[in-house]
Amino acid sequence: MEIGIDTFAAATFNDTEDKATRNVNAIAKLLERIEHADQAGLDVFGIGEHHRKEFLDSAPTIILAAAAARTKRIRLTSAVTVISAADPVRVFQNFATLDLISNGRAEIVAGRGSFIEAYPLFGYKLEDYDALFSEKLNLLLKIRDNETVTWSGKFRAPLTNQAIYPRPVQPSLPIWLGVGGTPQSFIRAGTLGLPLMVAIIGGETHRFRPLIDLYREAGAKAGHAPDRLKVGLHSIGYVGNTTREATNDFYPGYAETFTKIGKERGWPPVTRMQYDAQTGPTGALLVGSPLEVAEKILRHSEALGGISRVTFQMDQAALPQQKLLKSIELIGEQLIPLISQHSI
Amino acid sequence: MEIGIDTFAAATFNDTEDKATRNVNAIAKLLERIEHADQAGLDVFGIGEHHRKEFLDSAPTIILAAAAARTKRIRLTSAVTVISAADPVRVFQNFATLDLISNGRAEIVAGRGSFIEAYPLFGYKLEDYDALFSEKLNLLLKIRDNETVTWSGKFRAPLTNQAIYPRPVQPSLPIWLGVGGTPQSFIRAGTLGLPLMVAIIGGETHRFRPLIDLYREAGAKAGHAPDRLKVGLHSIGYVGNTTREATNDFYPGYAETFTKIGKERGWPPVTRMQYDAQTGPTGALLVGSPLEVAEKILRHSEALGGISRVTFQMDQAALPQQKLLKSIELIGEQLIPLISQHSI
User: Fold this and answer.
1) DSSP A40-75
2) pLDDT higher for B342 or A244?
3) pLDDT attached to residue B344
4) Element (H, E) at A251
5) How far is the C-alpha of A298 from the C-alpha of A226, rounded, in Å?
6) Chain B residue whose CA is closest to A163
7) DSSP string for residues in A283-338
8) pLDDT at residue B106 greater than cutoff 60
9) C-alpha distances out from residue A238 to A97, A299, B294, Å
10) Cβ–Cβ of B27/A169 closer than 8 Å?
11) Which residue in B31, B159, B169 is closest to A23 by CB distance?
């Protein structure tokens, strides 16, 4: 099982620095965390895509390229690329270039995005939400699988025997489908035989089993071998020396961030009781000691019929850099060996 | 005067490696040259944008971001960004992110491109060549100068009070206009008060004086202070220990590349006699010893009424990496001090 970190490159709002310097520091610290994750033996680092003040990740491949230049082994992925609002030609060019820079460590997680600000920014209508994703994914896969492409669709100019460069060094650049809770998305991923990255950021993880079954059934029906139908989990999580330390450290920033997002989305404010439930044995939050979180990951994997990648998103709780670096270390030095011993 | 290097990230066609590995190595060597230029004290490194097999620079900001992570002082620019075929929102996001990563070292040279493959690839018509550039440049400048933008045009969806993030750390991200020989382009740059990057890749440099006068006159007429009306020179050049060594080293690859490009554009094949004329005292090619090239740059500067940046494009002649690194060193250690002593 691969273990990694996802981030949305949160902007910090520290009043002792001016705004521009703050953002330079936030990016420098993020790059430091990626280097640290590489050295600690984590498998993958992912960067989201948002187009809003709170996050610095509107151009995730730019940050990934900087990370590629400073790392040796860790795989570098988007989490997710909002392909619905992007041009698949540019997306492919960016990731293919990243693949050359990183010597074959680039991956794409393609999704529709959980925020919606990209749609009006790039001139798309929310009523085309599904049609956009379907068409752009189709083109992206076509470009991945063919150097020269002939294609036409509704949302982008046609291509007529046109070649897209550069080509990546990996024979087939990995493209995952990033999904939330829409059954149709699970079925689409299975039918296409694409690996699936499921964002489970709240509730109880095992409840996603029926959706994951839909994915595996659709994949089998379409004739894809079971080993191609990989499932990954994007989680919110943070590992500390002890479960008590980890949950207490993580709570204040977590509560603030999710209460704020909740206002926009109509969720109730976060409470400690609800948080404690979600950091408990069946809850989605991977917060605790290395041992407790390792056991939880294995429990989740069993409940979901086997998962092959888990990522922790830990930096939305505004924890100090030293705590985040320490958490990455604990994941690399303690959690990963525990998982390796107990998974096949 | 600032001295730098420009590159198109040429793919190499070395038969002893497989194609994908070749491209990984070509990018790794390019990054090594940028690091070397940073350490040797060069001021700027630029990467072009092309969408064809021979060049690996379809996503130049991705390469620049990797370079940013490995360098400390050198400024990082496009050379040029084909904004006519791009979305100015994405262009700005890429460069603003690069600016954060590099702590304020990002610049854009915006141009129309000297090749035309970007137009059909991104669904634009060559008949809109000038209208596209003008509209996209206008939007790019608006985004640079305002966090929140309201805008509408012909070639991109409108923006209504929409904010573009992240914001760069430089208070005003430098945007140059990259021009070839079109008088209208020089006038546009002057009228807008933008610094001008002139590509002079053949002929005699002093012959560009009337065009540069057009730029300065248009700038003065529009009320821009003379010190805002900077002129830079993108040149083909290569510095060796002696002029004889440099010109002989550079010729074979230069002749091959420009004969090939010439076939596509209807130019006659390159001859040694023509090459010798262009490497001579008034010719555009900056090939020679540090002293000879320094003198030539100062001569060009005087002939053009003062230039504030010169870049060398040296890697299209397929010279070995050691020669290119040595040339960068000679520029940093010998040519730059000579220029500093003699220019104001």
Assistant:
1) TT--EEEE----STTBS-SSHHHHHHHHHTT-SS-E
2) A244
3) 53
4) helix A243-265
5) 20
6) B52
7) BS-EEE-HHHHHHHHHHHHHHTT--SEEEEE-GGG---HHHHHHHHHHIIIIIHHH
8) yes
9) 32, 17, 57
10) no
11) B169
pLDDT (0 to 100) of residue A327: 98
**Burial degree of B284 (CB within 10 A; 0-12, 13-18, 19+):** buried
Burial of B155 (0-12, 13-18, 19+ CB in 10 A): middle
Of B123, B124, B171, B125, the closest CA to residue B147 belongs to B171
Identify whether the C-beta of residue A51 lies closer than 8 Å to the C-beta of residue A113: no
CB-CB contact of B138 with B153 (8 Å):
yes
pLDDT in tens, A284-327: 999 999 999 999 999 999 999 999 999 999 987 789 999 999 99
Using alpha carbons, select from A148, A218, A160, A156 the residue that is nearest to residue A186: A218
Share of chain B above pLDDT 90, in %: 90
Q: If you count DSSP H runs as helices and E runs as strands, how many of each does chain B have, helices first?
A: 12, 12
Domains delineated in chain B: 2-342 (3.20.20.30)
From first CA to last CA, the distance across chain A in angstroms is: 8
Determine the 3-state secondary structure of B307 from DSSP. coil
How many cross-chain Cβ pairs, A to B, lie less than 8 Å apart? 153
Return d(Cα A237, Cα A315) in angstroms, integer. Answer: 9
Reported in sequence order, the residue ranges of chain B that DSSP labels E, i.e. its strands, are: 2-7, 44-47, 75-78, 81-82, 106-111, 148-151, 159-163, 175-179, 196-199, 231-239, 286-288, 309-313
Q: Which residue is it, tokens 């940093």?
A: B332
Q: Are A284 and A236 in contact (CB under 8 A)?
A: yes
Q: B42-96 pLDDT, tens per residue?
A: 999 999 999 999 999 999 999 999 999 999 999 999 999 999 999 999 999 999 9
Q: Do A158 and B123 touch (CB under 8 A)?
A: yes
Per the omega criterion (within 30 degrees of 0), is the bond before A195 cis? Answer: no
* CA distance, residue B24 to nearest chain A CA (Å): 5
**CB within 8 Å: B100 and A51:** no
Contact B94 A59 (CB under 8 A): yes
The answer to whether the CB atoms of B122 and A23 lie below 8 A apart is no
Per-residue H/E/C for A183-242: HHHHHHHHHHCCCEEEECCCCEHHHHHHHHHHHHHHHHHCCCCHHHCCEEEEEEEEECCC
CB A306 within 8 A of CB A344: no
Residue A19 has a pLDDT of: 77
ipTM for the predicted complex:
0.97
pLDDT at site B25: 95
Residues B20-49 pLDDT 10s: 789 999 999 999 999 999 999 999 999 999
Burial of A268 (0-12, 13-18, 19+ CB in 10 A): exposed
Chain A residue with minimal CA distance to B90?
A59
Quick one: pLDDT at residue A239? 98
- Residues in chain A closer than 8 A to B63 (CB atoms): 65, 97, 101
Q: What are the two backbone dihedrals, phi and then psi, of residue A122, each rounded to the nearest 5 degrees?
A: -105, 15
